[in-house]
Amino acid sequence: MNLKKRSSSERGVAEHGWLHARFTFSFADYYDEDHNGFHSLIVMNNDVIEPGGGFATHPHDNAEIFTYVMSGSLEHKDSMGNGSIIQAGDLQYMSAGSGVRHSEFNPSDHEKTELYQIWMEPKERGGSPLYAEKKLGREAIVNELKLLFSPDGREGSTEIRQNAEFFFGQLNKGRDLELQPEALLPHLWIQVVTGKMQVEQTILEQADGLSIEEMDRKVEIRADENCSFFVFRLPGE
After folding, report:
1. Tens of pLDDT along 25-46?
2. Beta-carbon neighbour count of residue 66 at 10 Å?
3. pLDDT of the residue at 17
4. Are residue 83 and residue 52 in the same domain, yes or no?
5. How many domains does the chain have?
6. Torsion of CA 200, 203, 209, 215, to 10 degrees
7. Rounded to an integer, what distance in angstroms lies between the CA atom of residue 71 and that of residue 178?
8. Is 181 left (phi over 0), alpha (psi -120 to 50) or beta?
9. Does 227 share its domain with 157?
10. How many CB atoms neighbour CB 230 within 10 A?
11. In this structure, how many other beta carbons lie within 10 angstroms of the beta carbon of residue 175?
12. Same domain, 18 and 126
């Protein structure tokens, strides 16, 4: 089992006036051969969008796209006919399938929007695009992991087109939880959204990531501060 930290301070940077972006993995004009995705997880972007700013209508295909709004709100419209405003603490899922077009804007005239946009490769190419939202709220999950997305839709999760699991957790300071190994999903990525915690002996702070290759024993997460985080379980090659 191998653990490797991806420090927030080492991420790629893009500044476009209305957009302040940080890239955990290679994306757009940022390329890092040592951080070119992690198995089927290929994008982990942490964006701040200025009031009124946003991404005009643009296409995607063959990508599982997750958007988590940390603060502010995000207005979404797409070629499937969906249109909504995603609030802080909630998630959006879009499977691009054979092709979809969408736009994303900060609808506020005074408040910034901060979000994560995360992409996975699908297990198969093509198919009709799909859309779903998860209304988590800020305090919905405390001191446990909640399965949000999975290949089979169990435990109330949303079914996705990849043999992977996406969890969200919040821990209060001093609390801990254990991750158990799973033979079919041996690789993990942990992304700290807010706060500070330890995984084994590795200290992780806001926006730090941690990869775990070939997890073969239980791993403990302990909160040094109140924290929120993502856990992705990913299949072997």
Report:
1. 999 999 999 999 999 999 999 9
2. 22
3. 97
4. yes
5. 2
6. -10
7. 28
8. beta
9. yes
10. 22
11. 16
12. yes
